[in-house]
Amino acid sequence: MSARGSDDRAGAAHSTPADARRQWRSLRELSPQPAAPAESPRHDQVGAAGDLARREVLQLAGASLALAGLGACTRQPPETILPYASSPESIVPGKPLFFATAMPFASGALGILVESHMGRPTKIEGNPDHPSSLGAADVFAQAAVLGLCDPERSKAILHRGSISTWRSFTDAIGTAISGQRPRQGAGLRILSETVISPALADALARLLRDFPLARWHAYEPVTRDHERAGARLAFGRDVSVLPRLERARVVLSLGADFLGGPGGVRNAKAFSATRRVREDARAMSRLYALESSPSITGAMADHRLALRPAELARLAGSLARELGLAVPWPESAEHREWVRAAAEDLRSAGTAALVLAGIAEPPAVHALAHAMNAALGAAGSTVDYLEPISAGSEGAAGAGEEASALRGLVDEMNAGVVDLLVVLGANPVYCAPADLAFASAYRKVRRTVHLGLYADETAALSTWHVPEAHFLESWGDARAADGTVSIVQPLIAPLYGGRTALEIVSAMAGEPGLSAYELVRAFWRRRRGDEGFEAFWRRSLHDGLVAGTAFEPLALEVGELKELPAAPEPGGLAFVFRPDPSVWDGRFANNAWLQECPRPLTKITWENALLVAPATAARLDLEDGDVVELAGPPGSGLGGVRGAVLRLPGHAEECITLPLGYGRSMPGKLADGLGFDAYRLRTAQSPWIAHDLRLAKTGERREPATTQEHHRMEGRDPVRVGRPADLREAGGPEPELRSLFPSWEYPGHAWGMVIDLTTCTGCNACVVACQAENNVPVVGREEVRAGREMHWIRVDRYFEGEAESPRTYFQPVPCMHCETAPCEVVCPVAATVHDSEGLNQMVYNRCVGTRYCSNNCPYKVRRFNFLNYGNHDDVPV
Questions:
Q1: Is the pLDDT of residue 187 over 60?
Q2: Which of 145, 573, 759, 772 has the greatest CB tally within 10 Å of its CB?
Q3: Alpha helices in 304-361 (DSSP H)
Q4: How many CA atoms lie within 13 A of 544 on its CB side?
């Protein structure tokens, strides 16, 4: 697709602001009416994971079919449709427009281009001009269109569970705010997710100036607390770390999954550029990885060690000492040869070396990573230190840790100090650390307001709930990882009358009539001035970024590490918490595409599982599918969690991974009861690791829905591993290729595609992108277990070597379009045929369902829709 249109008419790629406003106005009356709530599904109690009936899966996945135009994302006007008196020049039936916008994340906004057909967003790709995406998109962005069209999104403003109106809400919030003025906001508290919007941060700051005794707290379950504390140990202040992997030749990862999760797109693009071997570039970068829980970054490593968290920290100290740093920790004798080799490689690379620490690692490891980068001369070369991209809560950038701020808020709620608590987008009743007992404290607040995409766990306990506008239907702005700001512009009118956090804060400030569009424009007009503002605004919308907003690197020096905390002790069995690769911290739990997307390494779908090393599982007498119960010490308030076990080669021994984001109760029927809730075992003091949990077998079984063993070509692994030297030694002439199938002549085009397995990270973005592009249906957990998933692309994962420390290989298997396709010669009705350009095609209206094509396919890319998952009767309208 084109990435750029002309300056005077950008509809071929990015829409002009006039086009966007015309579509915005024309779609205001096309929002669908709230649908009647569906009955909650029944689910079993084993592992707190439920199974949806087939019809329920079809109903909930109907949003996917709606994208094809069957139900559509918007409803047609109920009145007679009249033709345009003057048709908009940019809207041509069948011709898409592309709009530049951004997908906000706590780690930084992802710049994207969204394809729109007749005012309906249908497909998302990366914006090649944006520094965070460079033309690529991750699995979350690819699935965002389905999240927009989710029929279970919140559809109405609720007051104590009853439907209300925006006017009633603004009157109520205005009255509550007026009551705070004599007290200067002493009883007003605001709780948000990480704020990367300059306009929203400015609105919150102005509100706090009007109410100097009010407080704003920010909390993310995937918290940066350790990263902040580590930066203060090293630099005396908080910073954002921006790796420049395109310049790195030797990389050391200390538990940093920099290729995965939100924010991984830019890093993956940069890292892959250093891994491609060409005639003019035969040298590859090298990656060393230390990690406890396997990740796609570790899977890509040339040299990897699986270590318990305490051992990882101690080995980081050994590496720092090997590089000449004075580390006030005892010398570790473990893995000495590995440490020496890695340190020597880093030292040889010098300014082309890079050390990164993961957000779950303790502050001391982050400080050591900064110190090693300084010793190697990497700062300013392979890593830049920037101002934090997030606006600081409590009035100061980077002030305080999120968990401690949340604890302070809970203490105030319990003490009766808080009269009005406004929650912007967050869901703390579900994801706050269990030891804070947030739900109990929340009930004690007189007035509570919740803004969210779903009527979730926090909404159920709130006085007021306001539906939140999806980023594809709202105006706003957001910073990328390097500080670059994008204007977030809508692709469609709000489907369910959603509002933005900016509008809520504006209503609190006494301006409930201003739209998000007016508020964002007003903010940037104040910053840029009136002169030339319209040209600036149009260019920013067209390009998808505000020119000149990237942060300049900071010149910082690492202080002495004398105050480094003591090295962590190994302790007993360690439990580590990690965000799920698909549903992340739980915010995507109701997205069917992401639920059914096999996780990159476990290949599990529709639930989470306790991940454990094979050796540790043997010691604990655990097999795949064994249901265990986890609990904290007596009186801790932690526990009562049941989940199934899944053994994972390459996992650190004496360590168990608990993926976050599951065990939901109210995000929507699709995610209700799936998996176990790891947040119930998490504490504010130690959000990433627990040592004092008790594990007990229950005697129950729950087989995980994994896909790795599906379509295995009669058990043959299609992965063969060899080195260039082995290929050279093999030598000799190529054997004559003989085939039972007729050859094809290509007088014109001949199509082909090559996948560079050296750079494939197995991130699954292609799997969900294909699902979005082709409306591939989801089938649900039980049908996945039966091997009936419908994905047209899959990414197999294979291990080589010992289970304790295997090499990992990813094998993408797309639609092959074979030149000599065995499905063609066996089809009795010629439903699968070869065209003149070398493509293997399927004529669906000829197919009679013999399934010979599937049986005869060596790659198993043919799928058969066994149960008519695209039944139009089940599409919500």
A1: yes
A2: 145
A3: 309-322, 336-349
A4: 31
Beta bridge partners of 670: none
Helix, strand, or coil here: 159?
Answer: strand
- At CB < 8 A and 24+ separation, what contacts does 743-749 make? 743/820, 744/819, 744/820, 744/834, 744/838, 746/836, 746/837, 746/838, 747/836, 748/836, 748/837, 749/837, 749/838
Torsion of the alpha carbons at 198, 200, 206 and 210, rounded to the nearest 10: -160
pLDDT at 834: 84
Contact 291, 648 (CB under 8 A): no
> How does pLDDT run across 104-124, given as a tens digit for each residue?
999 999 999 999 988 889 999
How many angstroms separate the CA atoms of 856 and 448, rounded?
A: 60
Residue 719 confidence class, pLDDT cut points 50, 70, 90 = low
Place of tokens 């050994």: 318
State the Rg of the chain over Cα. 27
Output 512 or 298, whichever has higher pLDDT. Answer: 298
Nearest residue to 102 via CA among 66, 140, 76? 140
Q: Give the model's confidence band at 638: pLDDT under 50 very low, under 70 low, under 90 confident, else very high.
A: confident
How would you write 458-480 as a 3-class SS string? Answer: HHHCCCEEEEECCHHHCCEEEEC
Q: Pick from 422, 451, 409: which is nearest to 180 by CA?
A: 422
Confidence at 711, pLDDT banded by 50, 70, 90: low
Contact present, 356 and 221 (Cβ < 8 Å): no
Instruction: Identify which of 45-59, 394-408, 720-734 has the greatest average pLDDT.
Output: 720-734
Virtual torsion, Cα 510, 515, 520, 523, nearest 10 deg: -30
CA dist 198 and 600 (Å) reads 34
Task: Single out the residue of 315, 314, 363 nearest to residue 338, CA to CA.
Answer: 315
Q: Which long-range contacts (CB under 8 A, 24 or more apart) does 158-162 make?
A: 158/455, 158/459, 158/464, 158/465, 159/463, 159/464, 160/463
Q: In this predicted model, what pLDDT tens digit does every residue of 562-620 receive, in sequence order? A: 778 887 777 789 999 999 999 999 999 999 999 999 999 999 999 999 999 999 999 99
CB 224 within 8 Å of CB 402: yes
pLDDT at 789 over 90: no
C-alpha closest to that of 260 among 331, 194, 358? 358
Q: What mean pLDDT value characterizes the chain?
A: 83
Query: What is the DSSP annotation of 288-307?
Result: EEEESS--HHHHT-SEEEE-
Main-chain phi, psi angles of 290, to 5 degrees: -115, 125
Residue 406 tokens read as 């949340």
pTM of the model: 0.86
Which amino acid appears at position 475 of this protein? W
In this structure, which amino acid lies at residue 718?
A: P
DSSP state of 499: B
